[in-house]
C-alpha cells in the first residue's frame, strides 16, 4: 500500500496514556503482542464509524527519520487522546507516513485531518527547511465490521515489524493503541 523505510529508528517504549478509557484497557507497548488483538468494548459501540487514515509524507522524503521532528508530531497525535475532537483508537508514526485509527467526536474526520495536517506542518517548520510536510491528500477507509477493525488494528501495530524496523520482541517509539484485557 505504501513504501516503508528500512533504516531503523530505535527508541524507548511508548509513553503511558492519560486517556480516560485507558483504565479499562491495556496500553499496547508493542513488547508482547497478543495473538488475537481485541479492542475495548467502547471502540465498537461509542463511535458510529471508525476510520483507518494514512497520511503520507511529501514524496521522496522521510521526515520522521529526524527523531526530534517525529517526537514533536507524535506528541501532537497523543494529545488527541485528551481532546474531544475525535476518539483515537490507535496510531503509528513511521519514517514516511502516519497511521491513525479514529472515530469522529466533536470534529468530523475531514475537518480533523485538515486541522491536524495544517498544525503538524507548522510544527515541522521548526525542524526542516521544507514548507510541505505531507502529501496533499490522505488515504481513508471506513471500517465495515469488527473483523475488519481487528485486522486493521493488527496491521497498524505490526507496521514497524513488517517494515523491518523492529523485531517481534522490540518496541517502537511511535506506536500507541487501545486493546482489551483478556
Ligand atoms: Ni504503513
Give a nutshell description of this structure.
The chain is α+β, with helices and mostly antiparallel strands and 182 residues long. 27% of the residues lie in helices and 19% in strands.
Record the SSE blueprint.
Elements: E1 25-27, H1 41-45, E2 51-56, H2 67-79, E3 86-93, E4 97-104, H3 109-124, E5 139-142, H4 146-157, H5 159-162, E6 175-180
Antiparallel strand pairs: 1-6, 2-4, 2-5, 3-4, 3-6
The chain binds nickel (II) ion.
Notes on the structure:
- This protein has 182 residues and is α+β, with helices and mostly antiparallel strands.
- It has a single domain (22-180), classed as Alpha-Beta Plaits.
- The protein is 27% helix and 19% strand.
- It has five helices and six strands.
- It has a six-stranded antiparallel beta sheet with strand order 1-6-3-4-2-5, with helices on both faces.
- A hairpin with a 3-residue loop joins strand 3 and strand 4.
- Helix 2 (67-79) packs antiparallel against helix 3.
- The longest helix has 16 residues, at 109-124.
- The radius of gyration is 15 Å and the shape is globular.
- Residues 1-34 have low confidence and may be disordered.
- Bound molecules: nickel (II) ion (NI).
- Nickel (II) ion (NI) is lined by residues 2, 94, 97, 99, 159.
